[in-house]
Design goal:
The protein is an all-beta fold. It is built from no helices and 23 strands.
Length: 385
């Protein structure tokens, strides 16, 4: 896997990693149909067994000593093994997972359907997170920092439980509500932790600060790590209706509204200086749209809102502060017309009100990024042959 920071047109072996993953899996499932309590049931039960063998290879600059720099007390000179040339490094691991799954549906009558599911799912690390190397930043006595990958990462698993009720009062109307609960184990997050590196200390650096022993230097290392267990819970609401009962051309109108409200026992404590585990990416969201479909004409106006959420536990490439993304509202429009069975003309606009996308630090007034893409418009012709 090439390092994403290296342009695709070049190949630098010392900055590239190779990930080899062999996955062996088997799956079995069984379907049941029965009448229980006078109600028709459909049940699917299955299980998957997965065995994975992983080998991560790359190049590592091994730091073996820190030396003072004459005339500059703000920086160390690093001494690296192999005459400052990278050394090949390979790490291997394997893991096994049993992943059961159950889905059940029961028709309750009066056009009401209940669904129940329970499963265990697996999410593998991103390939770039498995890089077997540590990169050392500028070696300053006041802050020894480094970053890197983690070939020892395990996939994170989630035990999932979902229950939903769906009501179909007419063929063009759906009203649904769902509740979900997830128990997530070994969730992968970018964190900073102290790691001790053995140094020769030929320069006889005094013990203190980040020099934590006669032959020890303690670095604050940012890398992906498996975190603690966390619970996620929430509800989803969805309503869809087409106004087919209206006369003539008006019967093509419809509307959809949905919302998700989510919470967790692993949230970031903004008032604490301790580095704590929190799930990233959790935030409430709401969506609404009005659409029209009739006579080859299709149009849609959509509103999407994403509430403020934790994007990253630590600022990428910097210190240990978190990154939050502010609440973001967006309006989109699209319209198309089928000229015939082969050609379609369309116009679409994204973020037509030019909303700003903003990230902040620990507190909302600490702005990190201010992204103003403006509105984006497109007009085109699409052909099918």
């Amino acid at each position: 896997m090439p390092n994403p920071s290296v342009p695709a047109a070049s190949h630098w072996p010392m900055l590239s990693d190779w990930i080899n993953e062999n996955v062996y899996a088997g799956y079995i499932d069984v379907d049941f149909r029965a009448t229980l309590g006078g109600l028709p049931w459909f049940i699917n039960i299955g299980a998957r067994y997965v065995h994975t063998e992983l080998t991560a290879s790359g190049q590592q600059f091994d730091l073996i000593d820190l030396l003072p720099v004459t005339g500059d007390v703000t920086i160390f000179q690093g001494v690296f093994a192999n005459g400052g040339q990278p050394l090949a490094r390979t790490e291997s691991s394997s893991y096994d997972f049993f992943l059961p799954n159950l889905n059940a549906r029961v028709d309750l009558g009066a056009n009401v359907v209940a669904r129940l599911s329970a499963s265990r799912t697996l999410t593998r690390p991103q390939v770039q997170d498995l890089a077997p190397r540590t990169n050392f930043d500028v070696l300053r006595p006041a802050s020894l920092n480094a970053s890197g990958g983690n070939p020892a990462l395990r996939p994170y698993t989630s035990n999932n439980f979902d229950l939903s009720l769906e009501w179909y009062p007419s063929r063009t109307t759906t009203i649904a509500a769902a509740a979900f609960y997830k128990n997530v184990r070994d969730f992968i997050v970018q964190t900073r932790e102290n790691e001790v590196i053995t140094i020769a200390n030929a320069g006889n650096l005094p013990v203190g600060g980040f020099i934590t022993g006669p032959n020890e230097a303690t670095f604050s290392v940012r890398r992906p790590r498996n975190a603690d267990t966390a619970n996620v819970r929430g509800i989803e609401l969805n309503v869809v209706h087409t106004f087919d009962w209206l006369p003539g051309l008006l019967s093509g109108f419809g509307a959809q509204v949905n919302a998700t409200f989510v919470g967790s026992n692993a949230t970031f404590d903004q008032d604490s200086d301790d580095i704590s585990f929190a799930l990233e990416g959790l935030g409430d969201s709401q969506n609404a749209s009005v659409f029209y479909e009739k006579g080859g004409l299709s149009a849609r106006v959509a509103y999407n809102r994403r509430e403020r959420f934790l994007e990253s536990l630590v600022t990428p490439g910097e210190g240990g502060d978190p990154v939050f993304r502010r609440t973001f509202d967006q309006w989109d429009v699209r319209a198309s017309y089928d000229v015939n069975q082969y050609a379609q003309v369309f116009v679409e606009g994204i973020n037509i009100t030019s909303e700003k996308n903003i990230t902040t630090g620990r507190f909302d007034n600490q702005v990190l990024d201010f992204i103003d893409t403006g509105a984006r418009w497109a007009v085109g012709v699409r052909g099918t042959f």
